[in-house]
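The aim of this short unit is practical: by the end, you should be able to scan a pair of folded records and say something sensible about each. We start with the first protein, listed as its amino acid sequence and then its structure tokens.
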Amino acid sequence: MFFRILEMHSVDKKKNPSARATCLNCMDGRVQLPVLNWIHEQYGIDCVDIITEAGMDGVLALQDNIDEIIRSIKISIDINKSERIFIVGHYDCRGNSVDEKAHREHIIKSAKRLRTHWPKIEVIGLWVDDQWRPDICYKSLKLELKTEG
């Protein structure tokens, strides 16, 4: 796995050379590389700001106070110029011990919650299955700014 990380920095960056993303993921180490590799392969993004919590999808969907997570996302978007947010839930999560259906509901609720803060940023929800394969379960439309003139 270590060699795969090194490879990510030496690939042809024609797809999205300066793109950056924010990934709100579980702290579980088993899910980190499959998600990062998937983001790189699907979007050509090498630089991903990772914000973790145990059972992140449940935290975002169910907790009232997510101020610290919002603060980290603001830094990623406003300072690091992240263009997308990924929210991840996964199989066998010990921080959010619910079934797949509930995870998918939490991911969608989390994505919609974050869209209220960043309506112009694309938000993508990912479910990671028991084979550690990410699958899109939510994708927002990216709103474009219209200028008058």
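Turning to the second protein, read its sequence before its tokens, just as you did above.
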Amino acid sequence: MFWTSALVALMMLVASAGDLKRSKIAALPVVVRVHERIELPGILVLQAEDNASRIFAGAGLDVRLERAGRSRPKQKAHYIDLTICDTSEGYYAGALGLARPFRPGGNQVEILYPRVRPIIERREAYAGRILGHVFAHEIAHVLTQIPDHSSEGLMKAKWDSDDFRKMAVEYLPFDARDIAAMRSTVMGWTNDNLADEKDTEQRPAVADCAVLLSSPRTCSGF
């Protein structure tokens, strides 16, 4: 009887330790370094970063967006690089942004701002919310590791006018599948594969497929 009770207690202790380890891993932040390769109003980018973080917080995820190169204490986190950039007409035609969810480092997310600009210029009152949704959509592809899109909500392949109207007053939601996938990805990262800022920048980029968020007038495939 004594040994049975001791064995049960030991198993519970091991299980608790495992739960604690997983909770610590989940608590580590995802830091998105925002690079600007095109000049934007500073307040617009700050609003977009804040809105994107709030969108992820609503799904129970700690995703922090910050300007690349911002001075801060060294921290353990999973780093994602997002670049706001110019684009040419033939570069992923019709896409507002793209993500490379299977690239282990380097530039994983691109926001093709010249295609976003006309959309937010028609909706200046909540431009930061729209750009924040674009940020969140592409970052989510990296976190879900899922290349396809949802039929509704934030992860739709093509937002329509109703979606943009909703963004003015509320955040478009993730569906249950995407939330589960993001949490699974974050829980799967360990202290061994989490890197500091220097480590991540030195990792080689691996070319792979790109996931596109299409403009309202164009439906691009994956």
